[in-house]
Amino acid sequence: MKPTRFALTGLAAGIALAGLTSTAQAQESWTMTTTWPDNLDLIQIDRHWAELVNHLAGDELKIEFYAGGTLMPGTEVFDATETGSIQAAGDWPGYWAGRSPAFSPLATTTSLFNGVDYLNWINQWGGFDLYQEVYGQYNMVYLPYGITNNESGFRGGTPIESLADLEGKRLRLSGRDQGRVLEQLGGSQVTLAGGEIYQAIERGVVDGAEFSTPGVDYKAGFSEVADYWMTPGWHQSASVFGVMINKDAWDALSEETQETLKIAAEATMAWSLAWSEKQSTEGTAQFLEDGTTINQLSEEDLATIQDITNEVIVQGACEDPMHAKVYHSMISYMQDYAQWRDVSVPFNMSRVTDNLPSLEDIEACMNP
Fold it and tell me: Which of 49, 164, 344, 368 is the most exposed place for a label (fewest CB within 10 A)?
C-alpha cells in the first residue's frame, strides 16, 4: 500500500505543479494587521480567520498576519486599508464612529442585541448588506467574523451597586450613544485606549472602566487593580468584529476565493461566540478566586437604562440617515423575531424585551 500511496501523492503533486506553471495569474499575497496588540486576547479572532483562510485558500491567497502596533498604530489601520497600503485589517467597527455614526451599531448596541441577535441579523435579516453599504463608502469590503456576547461591565476600586452610585463617577467608556446614556445617569465618559485602562484604574484617574468580556479583561490584568465589578455590561450588550478588505484587493480575487473568505468568516463567527463564552466562564471564575466583589444592577435600574437608551437611539438616528437605517433594520428584526422567540421560551435564542426604541419615530426621521 505504501508505494501506491506514494505514487498517487506524486501524481497529485505533478498535476498541481502543472496547473501552477500553466496559470498566468500568480498567487495573491496580502498583508493583514489588526487593531489589537498581542497582549489583548481579542487578536485570537483575527488570527483564527487569517489562519483558516490560509488553510482553505490553498495556492490562491496567502495572508501574512501582523499583530496590532507592529506595522502601524491601531488607529491608522482604517486609512491604510482604504488606500491599499495594506490589503486587510481586523477591527471593531465602533472605532470609526467619528467618520460615520453608523459604524457604532455595526460594532455594538447599548441594551439591545445579544450575541445571537447579531448572528441572526447579520446572516438572515439583512445585516451583512449594511456592513457592505457603510464600509463600501470607504473603498472596502467588510466580512464580519467575530461575535462576543455581553461585556463585563464596570471595574474599579470603589463599588457601584446601583445607578445612584454612578453620580459624579468618571468612567472609561467607548461609544457615543453609551456616553450619552451614562451622562443621563449622572456619570461622565472618559475616552481611553485599551492599553491605558490598567494604569488609569490603578492611579485613580478613573473611578471605573469597561473594556471587554471577562476572559479578555482577566488576561489584561484588571483583577490586580479593580476589586469591584458591576454587572451586567448594559453599555455593550454584544460586540461584532471583522476584517476590512481593500476593494481593489478583493476584486483581484477569483469568485471562488472570495467565497472561501466568506466561508472562513462564517466559520470564525460561530467559533468566536463559543470561544468567547468559554473564556468568559473561566475569566469570571478567576476574578472571583482573586477576591473580586460582583454587584449586579436591579431589574428596576436596568429598566431605567432601557428607557434612556431608547431615547438616545432615536436621537442618534435622527441625526444621521445611515445611522437611522442600521437601527431601523435592527429593531425591525427584533419585532419580526419576537413571536417565535416568545412561543419558544425557555429554549429561545434572543434578547427578550418588548421595550424597544420607537420604530415609528425613527421612520419619521428617515422620511421627514
Answer: 368
Contact present, 210 and 235 (Cβ < 8 Å) = yes
The confidence band for 24, taking pLDDT boundaries of 50, 70 and 90, is very low
Cα–Cα distance for residue pair 55/59, rounded to 1 Å: 10
Q: Give the phi and the psi of residue 146 in degrees, each rounded to 5.
A: -140, 135
CB 232 within 8 A of CB 77: no
Q: What is the largest CA-CA distance in the chain?
A: 77
pTM assigned to the model: 0.90
**Helix, strand or coil for residue 128?**
helix
Distance CA 28, CA 60 (A): 6
Report residue 141 as a C-alpha cell. 469590503
Return the H-helix or E-strand segment holding 91.
strand 88-91
Whether 173 shows a pLDDT value over 60: the answer reads: yes
Distances (CA, A) of 244 to 127, 193, 247, 263: 16, 20, 9, 16
Is the N-terminal amide bond of 232 cis, ω within 30° of 0? yes
d(CA 198, CA 156): 10
Cell 476584517 belongs to which residue?
243
- pLDDT of 368 reads 65
Residue 110 host element (H or E): none
